[in-house]
From TrEMBL:
Its EC number is 2.7.7.39. The gene is tagD. SUPFAM superfamilies: Nucleotidylyl transferase (SSF52374). NCBIfam families: cyt_tran_rel (TIGR00125), g3p_cytidyltrns (TIGR01518). It is an enzyme of class 2 (transferase). It comes from Neobacillus citreus. GO terms for cellular component: cytoplasm. One of its GO terms (molecular function) is metal ion binding. Residues 5-124 form the Cytidyltransferase-like domain. InterPro entries: Archaeal_FAD_synthase, Cyt_trans-like, G3P_cytidylTrfase, Rossmann-like_a/b/a_fold. Transmembrane segments: none annotated. Keywords: Nucleotidyltransferase, Transferase. Gene3D superfamilies: HUPs. This is Glycerol-3-phosphate cytidylyltransferase. GO terms for biological process: teichoic acid biosynthetic process. The lineage of its organism: Bacteria, Bacillati, Bacillota, Bacilli, Bacillales.
Amino acid sequence: MKKVITYGTFDLLHYGHINLLKRAKEYGEYLIVALSTDEFNAIKGKKSYSSYDERKKLLEAIRYVDLVIPEVNWDQKISDILEFKVDTFVMGNDWEGKFDFLKDYCKVIYLDRTPEISTTKIKNDLSLS
Ligand code: C2G
């Protein structure tokens, strides 16, 4: 069984996230999402609207997602890939090249971001309405 992994905050879940998860799942039969914890978001300089548990529940309801694990730091990717025997690592191409060091452990794929939508845009548009 081919396993795929991806990482992110997935706050204010939107169709750009779903589009990413749908395409990531096409690389295997089992998709793991490493979801940034609230503590790691603080390290990333992100304040998510929804808590880790709320964001986890939403991701677990998505048909493409098979497992959600916590992302607690920048450095867990290699151990995650080894622990879960991951074949392919997938991220949006705003991260193009940033995770190429993982090519020693699995395939690394960067997928085009979905244009015109982002958590930041949603927050900004709502604040103006
Ligand atoms: N994404 C996308 N299209 C958008 C918005 C987001 O394809 N319009 C993708 C991003 O490229 C990323 C995933 O959706 O692959 C999750 O996005 P974020 O929650 O913003 O992830 P980020 O905060 O970049 O966390 O260790 C990696 C980090 O945890 C990535």
